[in-house]
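Summary for the steering committee. One of the milestones for this cycle was to obtain a three-dimensional model of the protein with zinc ion bound, which we needed before selecting residues for the alanine scan. The sequence and ligand used are listed below.
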Amino acid sequence: MEDLTYPWVLPVLGRLPRSAKALPRALLLSGRPGLGKRATALFLVQGLLCETQRVGLRACGTCASCRLYQVGNHPDLRLIEVGQEEDGPASGTADEEAGPAKKASRQISVEKIRTLTEFVTITSHRGGAKVVCIVPAEAMHPSAANAVLKILEEPPGDTYFLLVSHQPERLLPTIRSRCFHLAFALPDAGPALNWLKEQGIEQGDLALAQGGYAPLAAIDRANDESFWSQRKALLDTLAAAGFDPLHAADCAEEVDGVLVSILLSQWAYDVVALKSGGNVRYHLDYAASLQKIAATMPIDELMRWYDAVIQFGRVAQHPLNKRLAMESLLCGYPGR
Ligand SMILES: [Zn+2]
C-alpha cells in the first residue's frame, strides 16, 4: 500500500473528517505541482475503497478491495489522467479540432468523461463506494468539464469525486463551488530542507529553489542531470560579462521552451528582487553574478525584458518558430 509520509501534507489531511465514509462527496485538491496532491488523492481513494472496519482515513492494505487497488484493477475506481489517451487510438472528437494525437494527450477528452456517466449510475461492483479521480482537472476539455458538472449537480449517493488541480482558477467556478476545497500550500523552507536531507538530496536549498519551493518538484529537479547541464549552459551566457545573444539563443534552443521561460523569468525575478533590496530566490548558485548585474542593469530595460519573458511563457509550449522566438527574446536581454 502506498503510504503518505510527506510531513507538509499531514496538516492538510487534518482538515478532513477522521473516517473515509464521512469524506465530502466532491473534493478539490489544489496547489502547485510537486506538493503531493496526486499521492494524497490516491491515499484517500484507497481509504474510500477499503472494506475493513477501522478508524482513520488510512486503508488496511490487506482486504480484497485493497488488493484490487494495488494491482490497478479495482472495478469501482475510475482514475482519469492526462497522457492516458496516448495509449488509445487517436480519437478525433467532433467538437475538438485537435487532430494530432499529441495534442489530445494534454487534454482529457469528453469521451473519457462520458464513460463516467454510466459508471456513476450503475451499482457498485463490490457494494461499497465508487470513486472517480481526475488528474489534473483543468486538463478537461470544456465539454468534458460540463459533463462532470452535470454529474456533480445531481451527485449519485455512493460516488466520490476527487479532483486534483494545479490551476484551480482554470476550472469552471460552478465545479469549484460544488467541491470541498483542500488547498496545499508551500511548506516552510526549513522543514522542507530537513525532509529533502532525509531523502538523501545534496544541495537541498538549490534543488528546493529550482523546484519552486515544492519538495517533490525539488526531488525531480535534483535527480534530473540534463536539467542542470542545460540550465548551466543557458544561465552562464546570461551571467557572462560579454553577453552574446546568438550564443544564448543556441543554448536556449536546446532546452524545452517551457523550461526556458521558467529559467529566464526566475532570472529576471532575482535581478528585480536584488534591485529592490531583496534576496535571490531561485538561482542561488548565481548570486554573485546576479548581484553584479543588478548593480548595473537599468530597471526600465529589465522590466521590458521581464514582460517579454512572461509573454513568451504563454506560447512556450508551442512556439511557432523556436529559433526566432529565442533570438528575439535573448536579443532583448539588457546584458552587456
Ligand atoms: Zn482494505
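Key point for the committee: The CA atoms of residues 23 and 336 lie 58 Å apart.
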